[in-house]
Specification:
The complex is a heterotrimer of chains A (about 300), B (about 450) and C (about 300). With about 300 residues, chain A is mostly helical. Helices cover about 70% and strands about 0% of the residues of chain A. The longest helix of chain A is centred in the N-terminal third of the chain and has 32 residues, at about 65-100. Chain A is flat and about 75 Å long. Chain C is built from 14 helices and two strands, in the order αββααααααααααααα. Chain C has helices spanning about 10-40, 55-65, 65-100, 105-110, 115, 120-130, 140-145, 155-180, 185-195, 200-210, 210-230, 230-235, 250-260, 265-290; strands at about 40-45, 50-55. In chain C, helix 3 (about 65-100) runs antiparallel to helix 4 (about 105-110) and helix 9 (about 185-195) runs antiparallel to helix 10 (about 200-210). Chain C is flat and about 75 Å long. The chains are: A mainly alpha (about 300), B alpha/beta (about 450), C mainly alpha (about 300).
Amino acid sequence: MVERTPLLNVLTHAILVVGLLMLMLPLWIVFVASTHDFRTVNTVPMPLWPGAHMVENYVTTWNQSQFGPKMLNSLIMAVGVTTGKIVLAALSAYSIVYFRYRLRMVFFWLIFITLMLPLEVRIVPTYAVAANALRPFQEIINLLGLSALTDLLFGVRIVLPEAQLLNSYAGLILPLIATATGTFLYRQFFLTVPEELLEAAKMDGTGPLRFFWDILLPLSKANMAALATIMFVYSWNQYLWPLLVVTDPAYGTAVMQLQRIVPGPLFGEPPRWHVAMAGTLMVMLPPLLVVVFMQRWFVRGLINQDK
Amino acid sequence: MLKKRMIGAAVAAVATFCTMVPDAVAQQRQRFEYWYGLTGQLGEVMADHCRRFNESQTRFEAVCVGQGGYDRAEQNTIAAYRARQHPTVVQIYDAGTVNFMLSGVTYNAVNFARDFNMRINWSDYFPGVASYYATSRGEMWSFPYNSSTAMLYWNRQAFASIGRTAAPATWQELERDMRALKAAGHACPMAIDFDAWQFEQLSAIHNQPIATRDNGYGGLNAELLINRGFLPMHITNMRRWLDEGLMRIQTAQTGKTIVQAFADSSCALAITSIANHGVVSATQSEGMQWGVAMLPVYEGTSRTNSLVGGASLWVLQGKSRGEYEGAAAFLDWIATPAEVQWMPTVTGYIPITTPAFQQMMAGGFYNQARYAGREISIQSLTFTPPTANSRGIRLGNYTSIRSEIQSELQAAFTGQKSVQQALDDATARGNQILRRFEQTMRGRELP
Amino acid sequence: MSGKRVTFDRHWLALLLILPQMLLVFVFFYWPTGEALFWAFTLEPPFGGDMQWVGWQNFLTVMEDPLYWNSVQRSVVFALSSTAIAMGIGMLLALFVDRELPGYRGFRFVFFWPYAVAAPAVGLAFRFIFAPDAGFVSAINQWFPGLWNPALDGVDAMILITLANAWSMVAYNFIFFLAGLQSIPRSLVEAGAMDGSGVLRRMRDIQLPLIAPTVFFLIVINITDSFVNSFGIVDITTGGGPARATDLMVFKIYSDGFKGKDYSLAAAQSIILMGLVVVLTFFQFKYVERRVHYT
């Protein structure tokens, strides 16, 4: 920055250091817990410094739980959800912000409301839909009498094929794309883009798609990076939905596997923390790497579009 | 995105192919799905049991999937059933028994065993175990699998320091021992928590009901009785002992559960499941001497049998004949004496059939230091033939009721309410839950 | 509601653009939700089968329950305090990292991490740190016995879950605040400096107003999230206790529906929860967005 403000700089550093300690303490504890053996990790209070069993714990956890293939599944799922979300949300927000049609706000609220109902509540019927994703359409066709109509006219009923999404990547990915964070974020951002840009583009004869691709998207890079980071982590850390939709271990995700290592309170058994925390850290690593990688998009200079 | 998906799919395909080749032989096996609820180390035991079944024969393959908890196992089974994607066999905990009995979707054990010529001998099961999973007419509808009961864990060294060599047999003795321990310098004579299970057990051994209609066996219109008679008296005592520092609350939220507090010698007594016997052995402090004993009764009461806890295996309708044959083979196999004996060697669960138990006694299993004392759990479970009050509990939506009791006890033990008030409130709310359940199940009868 | 002055005309294109998301939202949200919410008006047995229509009975059961209002109150307190803390700290950290003093890269690098940790792990770590017997905070109890005990004291338990939730959300907010701050053109801030405004004044007068859209976005997301997604934290740390002190609405829904298998009661509560969040959000759009200048 341009000026010297030594006192404020010291204060800034102090605040940042305190922030660092606050945010890192839980992670430090997770790390320390993963380096002790069963007995030590269950002594109360647990020692604050790492123990000697780090390699042993990590290797055991990795092998026992077959984290390799599970991580791959998690990766596929997270990449799928992230890409899907970024693309679809951009398109939808663009539609809502840059076009004026009557249903515009209706669509926005319809999408937005999806944030307001916890997954736990609708998980049972969502599972039924995942078992046959075309069933809603089939029911509607039946309800509207279309099926009966074609039966009458052509002697054949409309029967949609069963789209079974259980135990598949599609089943893991698609239901997670159907939420609103991305659309809302893009909407906020698009609203800040000056009107002059669009006016100039229209005067140049630029069509909506070209405007979107050449002008709007490049401006959105920082937001897209933020959204991508958040969505990747969000979908990577999902455990409730994957646990239900996937019963075939071949499609199990890393976090699902982690759930299996940590026993529930019902059994009175002390959690095998050393293994559970080692697993937690391993599972945490890929999203962390993504976050690290995405950082460069937050660097000022890459987005020096003077508006 | 398409490219990434294609790469992802290609990798998955290659991975699948690589596992397919050695499985080519396995492909010929009849597969069926079995969902279990245990997690952690016990979950691994489940998976292990499954694997051993697959290795013991070549005709069937059990595909065993852990569900991450008993609650989840029940929930996921329901969701799956609604989508007709359910497993053939599922492990459901004791509190889920009523839901399954009334569901109309189960292939009841007696019928299943008969239809598929299973070798099971129903009378082999301990009566205390069988009665929990049987109808009011005595027909068993699920297969008992992992069973436990409540025991008193006591620290021999602490008791030696007050000159006692046996665990207290009555609550009066226990109170006296706690005072002695406290006077001798032990900060925590007994660890307690809010788990409702211990009160069910205590009521059972005192032959006291916790609900009308034989604890619910008689019908869905049962009402709770926990605010009358035995329980208010006992819990008021506990509150008094807590205030005097003779008992201490230990839960996961305080940092240590009662099992952990006992295992690291900080508390000298605890009431918990025999299933934790192995856990305590594995985590006990160096050189700790401890044992298990039957739950204490109040002086002047004659003891009745204690209740079984744990889970049982249910077979569900709507599967193919081949899958049922596989399930039958599996259920037969785990009921053989060899397998019934295997479970207690790797967990704290008890052998559930008389022949198996007798074999174990004869073989000196319980003479080994690691397992010493576990046979007392069988004694507790079979002390008397089950009475109307010690058959088990058959109340609808029981998980919620237990949770209400737990919340009210938390209020009572932290001084927010009197014990009687807390129990009255728990009873009122519990009855509301029961009436809702009854209304929801209108038209269905408890078998 | 805010909108663009200049827009495109091709309505059919607009519909086409929004179609993929609407399809997904319909199939995977509205259809299942419709079914789930239908249960609020019936008594649905867990496994299905014959159910009975009971109209408003479930809603009455819920609203007449004093414990339900307890959970509403807890949820509101939780949402407001957790949002305030998470946004305040997130903003502060972002503002200071944005100053780009030497070493800022390291801080930026590290502040992102907490968001990467899954909710169950966060809960476990916090339970561990704050447990009265075992945790590090329990050192306080050495000096002031009985001061801190989230296992037995309701207020302490609320503090615990608020802090745990705020911890994850600080990183989330930090990411978005930083992105917002970084898209403010440097020239604007430099112009302010040249006019003689100090750092703090620039923060207040230039940077904050310019990231108002982000602030609004985060308020809405934080509050909604603390109502709707707080289940994991409560489940692992306090389990709703002690004596229902941390029995948040979504936790109660989960306990009744998921554990208790009373789908109808859970559905009725969910409709009320959704209604509450919709109303809250609507108010935020109407009254808070008013102060947000987009261009």
